[in-house]
Amino acid sequence: MSTTPATLDLSAKDLDPSRDFARHLDSIDSLVGFRDRFACPVDRDGSRIAYFAGNSLGLMPLDARRLVNEELDDWASMAVEGHLSSRRPWLPYHESLSAPGARLVGATPDEVVMMNTLTVNLHLMMVSFYRPSGRRRLLLMEEGAFPSDRYAIESHVSSRGLDPATTIVRVAPHKGESLLRLEDTLAAIERHADELALVLMGGVGFVTGQRLEMPEITGAAQRAGAICGWDLAHAVGNIPLSLHDWNADFAVWCSYKYLNSGPGAVAGAFVHERHGANAALPRYAGWWGNDPATRFRMEPQFVPRAGAHGWQLSNPPILSMAPLIASLAIFDEAGGMTALRSKSRVLTAYLEFLLRERGASGDAASRASRAPIEVVTPADVESRGCQLSLRVRGADAASRQRELAERGFWLDHRPPDVLRAAPTPLYNSFDEVWRLAEALAG
Known about the structure:
The chain has 442 residues and is an alpha/beta fold. 38% of the residues lie in helices and 12% in strands.
């Protein structure tokens, strides 16, 4: 066969449920070598764990240890001089992350800054972009958003003296369904067009793995006179993004999931250039957001740096940023999101195909009679990233997760009944996907 994973026809007639087929796909996968660039847990006999929890915490790039140790060595030997004289000078350290970060989200380097954590950045963006005034004070979000987003948004609305119960509009799936419908979101935007101040949604749902129609929603929000922002925690490093061309106003994301930069790692933010050039835009100010040309004059007036960097508060945490340098270098070396998405589409589709072949999933009739699992994530590959969310019928998802872990498969779960498996193109193989399908069907 001359077929490669990047060009494989995804129709069922071209897929083969045999393990030999899975191993063949691995043999022609141009990205398979990147598996060896990551540390992976092992089981009791020393075998590599089949790790499908990268949507929760990505594996550690092996270079992360070296880079962190180099910063520690430079700190030990140079102390304060390391700000200008270390092998990667600390003063402009964060700037080296803007270009590779921008390539992942489809932006210009000036529109992207790595800083803080996701929820901190979310609050900072709402300070600038949620500006309730007169009738225009409503904020639209999706029902079932990640709890941190809900807490941040509700508390931020309350801090403006508004009642979250009457100020926040929530778009929900239909009764008995798990997925959002685009037409419902667009209808809600149109219905509240005269009162809407901000639309703030997640690019990929954390429970279902559903990919929302970001360009369409962004355009509808802005035509209604509202600002549109995105939480990309489950989207960045997972799906191709074009934030600049989509005209998104702002976005925030964490980097410890698909960006593999470690627990609690430094997060990122995007601010469209039309806003980044607006020095009068209200914001919380900090020393590092000040214009570098005047920063060290210690003058009393804050002069924001142009671009997303003008939203920084404090100098960058070097030891936390070093793993992100290691990870983003791998993304570039692998060919960026175009190459990774090509493999991801096939990898996840193959898992779904195998589950249906083995009777672990299927249509409603077959599930009712013989299947313990329902695939919640959209079947359309353009409506999802690499994650498949699997509803466990008649069983506790946490117990099923523990049972799979004992057999060498690490997934995660969301109560009460959803297992989440994320075949990640940088370090998961087709053979691992084949073995996971066997375990789920058993």
